[in-house]
Write a structure and sequence with these properties.
The structure is a homodimer. Chain A has helices at about 30-40, 55-60, 65-80, 105-110, 125-145, 175-185, 200-205, 255-275, 300-310, 325-340; strands at about 1-5, 15-20, 20-25, 150, 190-195, 215-220, 245-250, 275-280, 315-320. Chain A is of the alpha/beta class. In chain A, strands 1-4-9-8-5-6-7 form a seven-stranded parallel beta sheet, with helices on both faces. A two-stranded antiparallel sheet of chain A has the order 2-3. Chain A is globular and about 55 Å long. Chains A and B meet through helix 4 of A and helix 4 of B.
Chain lengths: ~350, ~350
Amino acid sequence: MRTYHSEDHRLHFPQAELAGGQLVTPFERPSRVEYVLRRLRERGFEAPADPGPCDLDAVARVHAPDYLDFLERAWDDWVADGNAGEIIATNVPAPGMSAARRPEGIEGQVGWYAHASETAMTAGTWAAAKASAACAQAATRDVMEGARHAFALCRPPGHHATRAQFGGYCFLNNAAVAARMLRDGGAGRVAVLDVDFHHGNGTQGIFWEDGTVHLVSIHGDPLHAYPHYIGYADETGAGDGAGATTNLPLPPGTPYRDWADALDRGIGAIRDRGAEALVVSLGTDAYRDDPISFFKLDSDDFRDMGARVAALDLPAVVCFEGGYAIEAVGVNAVNFLEGLAGR
Amino acid sequence: MRTYHSEDHRLHFPQAELAGGQLVTPFERPSRVEYVLRRLRERGFEAPADPGPCDLDAVARVHAPDYLDFLERAWDDWVADGNAGEIIATNVPAPGMSAARRPEGIEGQVGWYAHASETAMTAGTWAAAKASAACAQAATRDVMEGARHAFALCRPPGHHATRAQFGGYCFLNNAAVAARMLRDGGAGRVAVLDVDFHHGNGTQGIFWEDGTVHLVSIHGDPLHAYPHYIGYADETGAGDGAGATTNLPLPPGTPYRDWADALDRGIGAIRDRGAEALVVSLGTDAYRDDPISFFKLDSDDFRDMGARVAALDLPAVVCFEGGYAIEAVGVNAVNFLEGLAGR
């Protein structure tokens, strides 16, 4: 299995995350990637390849042009406005607000393009986000050219990024870019399987009315887990996408046997809709020691998870997402890849 | 003119405000009140009276019961959840989220009941918010009993608090409570004149479909100013309230002559709708040296402002709102009161 990685992920290195009423060191930090790289080496994967430049046209197939323009200029505008900290949204268009016009000032624009306030942007975020998407694109090209599986070691992650909003540590939706590329490349139907602990709200939003991309997300019940206001089982898509969203929220303390039951239901749903290719949003925060999640998976369970996904017998692009028990991130992610590859 | 003040405002003393990507000392701080109290003394106003206990039934006429319950228990729930900082929303139901259910966890509930992330709640916030509303209630009772004018030195302020959301330093909408009391007490039509620099989004939301309470708000154009996503001139109310919201947004750098033109338009609109009583949301942040605003009013202009409002010849409850050029807050607020009283 080929893997893709860009050192440019380091350019996204915020110092602050709003959590519990404090600014803390972000849970989503560069060192996460090091543990995955080390584990890939330990387990004999070939050295990750640099993905080359990001194809912004492919990114623009799932993100709004004005949003991409915002991501590109946000840091300069923020600094020019006299702000001393990193970019964090102080308010977003909340329920009851008309949101009739995009603000002209950068503070208002930051909130316009955000769905959450935990996530900071820095000078290098745009470059890192493009490099992350480039990893997804390179892996997707491999699969389009006949590879069975490919792994994109994306950072920053992507599945919380909507068509025109950042949040949840995500800026460009790498998995959505991959799914769109597979569709544009000829796959009649594509499935995105999101096993990250947190609901894939960005991916859901992007494909909400698209019946050709089937999202299956297994995640912490939003009654108790971020992103809190989306991800319920009765959200199933609309218009042409009606029925093409499958949300499988699970309660606090869920052990792997229950999690695996949900996975099997998701896999069954993917089979039923007849996907020709698969994108996996591989977060590892369903792990029992994750500091901001509440499932109880062991490291070995990620290998079993990969094996169950392999039984779908579909070409698959795997995009790295969340996972914050940093020292275990590498083992858990690579266990999944080995299960998927039947190693 | 009688004035009301409660020392319990000091119980709301957050240490953090999210601004410019940093946690800073909140602009809305207890010392603001001291400057108003001192100026009232200097100018010979009688000593402020304690308002007595808050009438929660009157508060519940404008706020949702579940929101009031949240405000009462939020701090205990937040601490029990293990959060080390003050209560700050990390995400709210943003555009694109279903917001189909109220979360059960406190983190999700904080965002459910918030429209912004700059505002912190602390252990004493609920008590202070009730004391602030009590000031508005006491001043309103004075006017209902025949006083021409009364001043409620409310803190925390209120006009950004919607029926079920806090934000913008506001928790209970004191001006809305006053207007509702005046209506319930027999006034056929009431006007709320909001001269705070920031749009009175909470008051607008509460009376959006109520044609008997006419909101006139003069404020920084949301294209450039908080709350950014509401407060445009074409927001004029709905249903029974169609036409009963008058927004007068003004651009950066607006001098008093232009501001006063807008005030005169607002006063004309109030006359046209035939109000029998007036509530004034008296923010002083239209002042030229306000650190987070962009109008150019001088201190003397607040006296002229009061005199123009006096020409409406209506009984009036004045509720203190924002204003962050702290040392000038007292002079500016009392100048308005003196202009209103013809002193």
